[in-house]
Structure formats: C-alpha cells, structure tokens
Design a protein that fits this description.
Helix content of chain A: 55-70%
Strand content of chain B: 25-35%
Distance between the termini of chain A: 26 Å
Distance between the termini of chain B: 36 Å
Largest sheet of chain A: 4 strands, mixed
Shape of chain B: globular
Structural class of chain A: alpha/beta
Strand content of chain A: 5-15%
Strand order of the largest sheet of chain A: 2-1-3-4
Number of strands of chain A: 4
Number of strands of chain B: 14
Largest interface: A-B, 22 and 30 residues
Order of helices and strands of chain A: HHHEHEHEEHHHHHHHHHH
Helix content of chain B: 25-40%
Strand order of the largest sheet of chain B: 6-7-8-3-9-10
Radius of gyration of chain A: 32 Å
Number of helices of chain A: 15
Structural class of chain B: alpha/beta
Radius of gyration of chain B: 23 Å
Oligomer: heterodimer
Largest sheet of chain B: 6 strands, mixed
Amino acid sequence: MKTIIIIAKEFKQNIRNFKANIMMILFPIVLIAILGAAFSGVFSNTIDLGDVKVLYTDKITQDKHFKAVFSDFRKSISIEPGVQFEETADETTGKAGIQNSAYSAYLIITENPLKFELYKNDRRGFDATLVETALNSFIMNYDSVAAIAMVDSSALEKPEIKDFENPVNYVQTRSLDKKRQPGSLDYYAVTMLTLILLYSSLTGFWAIRSEMEQKTAARMLCAPIRGYQLLTGKVIGCISVTAVQGLVVILFSKLVLKAYWGENILPVALLLLTYSIMTVSLGVASAYVFKSSDTASGLLNSIIPLLVFLGGGYVPLSVMGGFISKITFLSPVNWVNTALFKIIYDHDYSGMPVSIILNLSLSALFIFTSALISGKGKRLYA
Amino acid sequence: MSIVKLDQVTKNFGDVTAVDKMSLSIEQGEIFGLLGPNGAGKSTAINMIVGLLSIDKGTISILGNSVKKESMTTRSNIGIVPQDIAIYEDLTSLENVKFFASLYGLRGKELEKAAMEALEFTGLSEKVKNYPKEFSGGMKRRLNIACAIAHKPKLIIMDEPTVGIDPQSRNHILQSVKKLNELGCTIIYTSHYMEEVEEICTRIAIMDHGKVIALGTNDELKNLITDKDVVLVTVNDSISKVREEKIKEIRGVENVEIEDSTVKISSSREVSNLDMIINYFTSNRISVKSVESKTPDLETVFLSLTGRRLRD
C-alpha cells in the first residue's frame, strides 16, 4: 500500500510539472511534424513524373504498318507512364524544344532503313531516359515482329504474336521492395518517441534527486517504510507518468499527424514500456551514483543525443556508413528502433525478445545499483 | 517511564567520533532540550534515534523497542520536524500532510481528519488548498510541523524548528510545542536560541564533542555555575572608550563581553569587586547609564562548561 501511495504522489507531482510535460509531449510532437515535413523527400519511394512531353518528326511515308504500330505505342505510353507525344514537321522547332527545355526528348524517325534518332534533354534526364527505355522496348518488339513476318507472315495472326506486337506496358516501374516503407512522418514518429523516452531518464533522476534537495527523503525514511517500497514506488511512479506522456505522443501522431504505427499496437506498446523502464532506471541509478546533480544531469544530457544519433533517431541508420555504422549496436535506442520498425512494417517480431531482454536486464542492473547504494550509504537522505 | 533510552551510544565517521558513549534517558511527557554548538553531535544523535543513521556501538530504544532490531515499530512512534523545511512545493498543504501521514498507515476518513487537525493546530486550516510556494517562511515552518504531527506520534523530535522566522511565527511554534506536550507528546527540542530552550524545556542536555557534558533542569544547570556573578554595565558614552583588557585586570573578573552599549562582566562569586568595576568606568570618565546584576543564563552555563559560546 505504501508503494502505491508513493506511486500516486510521484504521478501527481510529475503530471503537474508543466515544463516537463511540454518537454515530454509537445517537444516530440513538434519535432515529428517538423522533421517529417523537412525530410519527406528523403523517405519517398515513389517518383512523380509529372508531364513528360516528347516532340517527334515522322518522316515515314510508305510503311503504313509501322505508322499504325507506332500510333498504338504512343497511345499506350500516354496512359502509363504518361508520356505525351506531339508531332512537328520542322526539325529546327524540335531541337529548339529541347534547348529551351519545353520537351524532355525529341525523336526523328526516318525510313529506308528505319532509323530512330533521339535527342535527350539533359535537364530532364530522368524523363528522357524513361522515353529512351520505352522506345528501345518498342523497337525491340517491332524488330522481332518484323523478323517473324519475313519468315512466315501468317504467324502474325497468331494471338500471342499480336499481343507481343502490341504490348500494353512498355515501361513498368515497380519498387523492388513491395512491403510498406515508413515515410518521414512515420519514421520520426517512432524515433522521436524513443528519443523523448530516453529523456525520461531525467524524470527518474529528478524523482530521486529532488527528494534529496528538498530534504523530504529524510522525512520519508524516518517513517515506517522500507527502502525497497520507496525505490519501487519512485520507479513505477515515473514509469507511469512516462507511459501516459508516450501514449499522448503516439495518439497525437497517429490520429492528427497520421503516422503509421502498424496494425498491432500491443507489441509496440510492450516494447516501449520495457524501454521506459530501462530509461527511468538509468536516471534513478544516476541520481544515486553521482554525488553532484550537475555532473549527473550534464552527463545524461550529453549521452542521450549520442545514443539517439547511434540509434538512427536523427537520420536513418541506412545513410550512416564507415565506423559509425559499426558501433550503432552500442545504442539501446538502436535495438528498440530496429525492433519497432520490424514489428510495424514487416510484422517481424524477431527483434522483440532480444530488445525486451536487454531493456529489462539493464533495468535490473540499474535498480540493483540504486538499491545497493541507497541501502549502504543512505545516499537518498544524505 | 523512559520513552527514549540511549546506552553507551557511539558513532564514528572515519576517524571522527561524532557521538561518544552517549547515555541518556528521556521520560514520557518531557520537553527535552538538546543544546550544543555545531558539530557537538546533536544531529548525529537524533539521526540515530530516528533510524537514519546506523549505530556503531551501544543501543537506543524507544518505548522499550530497539531502534536497530524493531525499526519499523520505533519509527511509527516518532514524528520528525527537520531543521530544513521538508515539504513538497508542488503539493498543496493538505496533500503534503496527508502524504506523510499516510506513510504511517493512516487511510481514508481517518487520514483526512488527522490532516485537517494538524493543519488547524498549526494555524493553516485556511490554507489547505494553497501551495507552499505561496507561503511565508513562518507558514512553511508551521506546515513542516503539521507534517510531523498528523499521525499523532508519541515522540516528536524538533530540530531547530524556529530558524529564520519572524517573532510572531516563532511564538506560535513555541505555543504549539507546549500544547503538544500538554496533549501527551514527549518532545526532543534542539535550538540555538537559549531563551526558547529556557522557556519551554523541562530538562536540558548540553552536548559538546559528542558527549553530554551537563544534564538537568534549567535551574539545575544554572546551579552548576553558582560560583559566578554577572554584572551588566550600560554606558552613555561611546563604547569604544571601554578597554576589555583593562577590565579583565580587575581582581576576580573572568570574562568580559561587549554588545552594543552594554558590557557583560563575569566574575568569581568569591571575590567582591563591584566597587572596582564601577571605579574603572568613573576613573576613565565613561558615563554609566545603569548597572545590573544578572543571574546566569544557559549561555553563561554553556560558556562556563565549554569555554565557548554556543554559536561559535
């Protein structure tokens, strides 16, 4: 019961702490919104082609079959990926269209022999390459059909050849990874939450240190209460308030910012809970280990950004290279972020047990250290 | 019946012996004063009584229960008013009192009633929903007391409860201490203010260098130094004309102190030297406003026993 009394007191004090709530709730929400918007391009896995316009000059006069096939090609490519062909009889106009960047490519088709001459706009390199690829595909198909016709023209009537002659999709763009990928908002919703939960170590730290500085610890220890009840109450109280703050961030990011948290929030919540236990315990242990508040809080404030960086909190781990990429495993933020992304996007729970065990093992170590120091030296009261 | 008993209690911090074979028995219903300068061992002794510090040697018992072996029982009988105000600024005064009282097992309506009574007792019943940050120093001191008494302890330990407060709040606190005692509480009271201790304490122990060097009632302690006479001479002229070393040359004079325009002269009772003292002032053309023979106070007792002033 006394533990519950301390939990309730701790919860009440923390929830009334306006500055801490701004830091723990508003700060990550603002960061998610800002970073999500700022880095949206970095995380995008689709390309908006916009208008791809191609000028062409058709000098074919005799080969009506080619004209028909090329017309079909233009129609189909206008649908997907959306390349619009415009004809011009004047080569100078065509080339000028490239020079003034009004068109992505200019194509001249001549006969006897059949020849395609493509001028690409370097300033629209991707669009021009797309046109070139589509055109190459078309030419290969046309050459194949022409070769068959030379051997056996009746074969052209066969359905499979007709289909081959008029393929619908000359260019098909497909992502190699068909699984859902996090957008910038989704990414920073996770990483900013784990960042701010790491800052909850300061909640744990001040929960102990403020009792020392306010001299209330001595008063509590004079009461008939056991050391473990006090320590447990403090830790659970801080975890409870951190859990509420984290929940607000998750709900806001999900409902308002539309961040994706996966289809099953329970394993995500469980992992974050064990992570919070670890971070709060880290703060509590720091309060006991270090005699000076300035030293302890300074150290925590220095280490946290480093751990978050190594955990991919600021920039994705995929962009890190060299030595840094080899030491990212040192950060508990990395284990948690990696496990969370696997759960949310791959439904892969393989990282979860390891991460939970690591979180709880570290928590046990921190709590044991705290209990040892507080029991021996009455550091809480000193 | 003894409520607190210390038997040959010793506490060392490294090479320093903070409390040295201290033996003491405090009876139920007493207001027991613990006097001593900083470093005398008062706080160490109190911290061992309340269980904050371990005892190196000897035993302490409260109502017959060992502090070492039955700490939960002994602690439940104690209310502590620490020297430093120990309250939460972010909890209301009622929440503060209720929280600390609940640690002693009070629940529900009983808790609410006890907390309200404690706040009423300390004159804070109008401020139950106020936060301590809105309080004056004196009000915070009173809340500090309310947090110690709500669970109705048999023994209340007050460590310098009137430090840094206005006379009105000090008076309120002293009256509260007397009232608590009348209600049956035993009180251990430490203070630097001799007049407070003289006014409220039924028995006093003077500590120095970790030992109790004198123990008794106010009168008993003063009788320890009946070999001294104290004369207060107040002058009209500038006090700078007075030469302490010249007064000390007068036969029988043992100590001279100057405070504002008053010269406090302690002499051996065996020597009659009042005429010589007055002669010093007249012969040096120092105009005397008044001469007063003073009975010794606890400060004088302390000075006599230790050779130091209490606040040195």
